[in-house]
Structure formats: C-alpha cells, structure tokens
Amino acid sequence: MSASSYNVNPLAKYKLVFLGDQSVGKTSIITRFMYDTFDSTYQATIGIDFLSKTMYLEDRTVRLQLWDTAGQERFRSLIPSYIRDSSVAVVVYDITNRNSFQNTAKWIDDVRTERGTDVVIMLVGNKTDLSDRRQVSVEEGEGRAKEHDIMFIETSAKAGFNIKALFRKVASALPGMENTQLVKGNDNMVVELEEANKPAPADNTSTGCRC
Ligand SMILES: Nc1nc2c(ncn2[C@@H]2O[C@H](COP(=O)(O)OP(=O)(O)O)[C@@H](O)[C@H]2O)c(=O)[nH]1
Ligand SMILES: [Mg+2]
C-alpha cells in the first residue's frame, strides 16, 4: 500500500495502561520507547501521565496512548478507571524482586475484573541487565503468563533490550490487527513523536493526581 493510503482510514487509537509495583521500571520502559533514553536516578511518577506515539504499520497507522500509573497508595483508587478505558494492559515486574512478581497476579486480576477477556495483557519482566541479582526465572514468568493466557516478554529499559519488541508484540495483538503486518526492521517502526507529558484530562485533575 502507498503511504497516501494512511490517510484514507481514520487513525485507530489504542490506550495502553502500564501497571505494576513501584520501581519495577514502568516509566523507564515508556521513556526508552519514546525517547530512547534511560535515567538511573529514580523519580517517582506523580499521579498518572500519558504520552502518545504513532506507529506506522504496513497498511495503516495506529496511535498508541500510553498511560503511566504511579504506585503511591493515594492514586490507587484512580487506576481501575484507566484500566476500564484501555484495550491493552502492560503488567510489569522487576526480575530482581520476587515480591513485584507475586503482585502481578493481583494486577492481572484487576485487569480481568474491569475488562474480562476484552483486553490484551502483556506481562513484562524488566531489568534483565541485573542478571546476577535475578530472583525470578524466565520459566516462572512464562509459566505465569501461560496460566493467565496472556503474553510475556523480558526487557531491560536500561540496556534497551526488547523494548521495541514489546511494543511490536502488543501492536500485533491489538483488536482488528489480525491481518496487519508490522513494517519490518526496528528503525522504521516508530517514526513520529506526538506529545509529551500532557496533563491528565480535566475530570481527573479534580481528584488531585497532578499535584
Ligand atoms: N538496572 C536497571 N534499572 C532499571 C531498569 N528499569 C528501570 N530501572 C531503574 O529502576 C528505578 C525505577 O524505575 P521507574 O521507571 O521509575 O519505575 P516505576 O516506578 O515502575 O515507574 C529507577 O532508578 C530506574 O533507573 C532496568 O531495565 N535496569
Ligand atoms: Mg513511574
């Protein structure tokens, strides 16, 4: 298909919500994907941020809206409404932190409660660069994914390992994407940077998540 055909169909938009315990690397994965950078100093995500990025596929373009959630207790009550709105949930744990892996069961349950089976769930074991501190094996990650019938990948936001693969896998599983092949080659995949650090919608600001 020619590039001009991108404009024929309305741009399909998909919301992805990132879930998982604090410090597992949700913000770092998004930052690596968006800007191809990594920051080793920890900055807690305040409330909920979203960024969006356009992916050019072989026969169409999709807009991914990435919702980054924060682990602080006072924001927890907001998360279900973001899950409800999302067609994809990316559930992240830290392979050096068994507790964060155990808690993925709860995050997956939360997604099922809100969305049933009408959702793509990707389980992500992050921080593979810290292999000497690994507490959760690849097999355990795969096992949990199988048990819940969801997708699985290990990543390192620090090393940039499997970050593009994660988003490619998610994009190819999006509803309505069955017959769509992604453009081959890492460098072609993501071309356009859309928006950064947009404020959350007005109906969420009243709950204080932008403080
Ligand atoms: N070694 C290593 N550190 C990481 C990786 N991803 C994130 N971090 C670090 O882990 C800490 C928490 O990351 P962050 O993305 O803020 O986690 P979040 O709370 O889930 O958003 C930060 O100090 C990051 O630099 C990774 O792949 N490898
Ligand atoms: Mg964060």
TrEMBL record:
Recorded superkingdom: Eukaryota
GO molecular function annotation: GTP binding; GTPase activity
Chain segments annotated as coiled-coil in the UniProt record: none
Spans through the membrane: none
Gene Ontology biological-process annotations: protein transport
Family: Belongs to the small GTPase superfamily. Rab family.
The name this protein goes by in its record: Uncharacterized protein
Species annotation: Planoprotostelium fungivorum
